[in-house]
């Protein structure tokens, strides 16, 4: 009998349920958006009970399956009561920058050497540690629960698993995104916890990514992992040098590495890809905070009315006309790690049109992604043909521009639900079987310009970034 596997993909903007089987059939059964709250500038929050309810609705949409997998947002985190299960804070989303001052103070005290050495991560509000410390210091109900021995802290997966399976746990890959886990030992690091002010006894148990992880809605849960790692698995990346780019809310590139690489000055993040069957696979990660979120913002600003307008442009690339956009709406991630960097169009004139601004925006996302891939390739030589997924992979202009600026072939597919599919594949792997990737049409974008021209584009963009980083320091 054909094995059927479900996947619940709980992402930054929605929660989705996918059904897969060994015949290669794949179907999205449910997709539910959730509210994005911005109580203050640079704050981003989700309602944990809304996310939990959406997961439960997606689970209910699944027919009888042999197992289910669950993805999470990575660095997004919260606090809740160990006895009642009630949230004691909102979910503080990975994009949130409320702890910038605390991070700056830690950096000024020289603490970054410890986070780089133990967790492999720079000091940044992106990661969970400072968010969890903020909750204790600013949510009286969390502080009360801590005094009573009832406080639980963790990334969103730990909350979901606690509520749905009764097991307070996270997986090795998700724990590696917190700045609290020692990459060498795979355990919570007491020195890092003291540095940030996060009680280690309030953190979840760290478990493998796949295996017997409990029952969720009467279904065996056999995989739980970060959405980007799930996408890496869904792309078929298994050996050193294999890499993928996912263009979602942000743009995230991951590449499989032979072993754990040390943190370096290039801003790349050594991380855990997954742990299956006792074997840990390492990866290197680099991200751009704003990709689809920048496009959505431009749409709300009235720069376009239909995304089909972004498929192609009649004019020459905006960067060749000295018009550039730096998509730092949430600051700059890899390789800069500068939350002070400001988003801006540079080079506008009286004849600049809405289409020009949109064209520059897409190019800015591609050029920021190219910075990440270049830093990655300098440390871990990656494959020449890059697999790309996510909503923005449907923009021929963005994909061709990315191929041009990277000097690499970009490979997209008509089937781009690779995060949920990777999660289902991982859940199937835990049962000793495999799910074939659905047949789909592939599109290849080969570079059309020479290296010298591409380097000239990157130099112009580098100058634009320097100006944006300096702006808030004036």
pLDDT averaged residue by residue: 93
Helix content: 25-40%
| Separate helix tally | 14
Overall radius of gyration: 21 Å
So, CATH architecture of the domain at 4-234? 2-Layer Sandwich
Spatial arrangement of strands, main beta sheet: 17-18-16-15-21-22-23
Oligomer state equals single chain
β-strand percent reads 15-25%
**CATH fold type of the domain at 4-234:** Nucleotidyltransferase, domain 5
Describe the structure.
By secondary structure, the protein is an alpha+beta fold. It has a domain of 231 residues: Nucleotidyltransferase, domain 5 (2-Layer Sandwich), CATH 3.30.420.40. The protein has 14 helices and 23 strands. A 7-stranded mixed sheet has the order 17-18-16-15-21-22-23, sandwiched between helices. It has a 6-stranded mixed sheet with strand order 3-2-1-5-14-13, with helices on both faces. Strands 4-7 form a two-stranded antiparallel ribbon. Strand 13 and strand 14 form a beta hairpin. Helix 4 crosses helix 5 and helix 9 crosses helix 13. The protein is globular. The model has no long low-confidence stretch (mean pLDDT 93).
Quick gist of this model?
The chain has 474 residues and is of the alpha+beta class. The chain has helices at 48-61, 100-108, 112-118, 128-138, 140-147, 156-165, 172-175, 190-196, 227-234, 292-300, 354-379, 396-406, 418-429, 451-471; strands at 4-10, 14-21, 26-33, 45-46, 67-72, 77-81, 91-92, 151-155, 169-171, 181-182, 187-188, 205-207, 215-216, 219-226, 243-247, 251-257, 269-276, 279-288, 324-326, 344-346, 385-389, 409-413, 442-445. The chain has a domain at 4-234: Nucleotidyltransferase, domain 5, CATH 3.30.420.40.
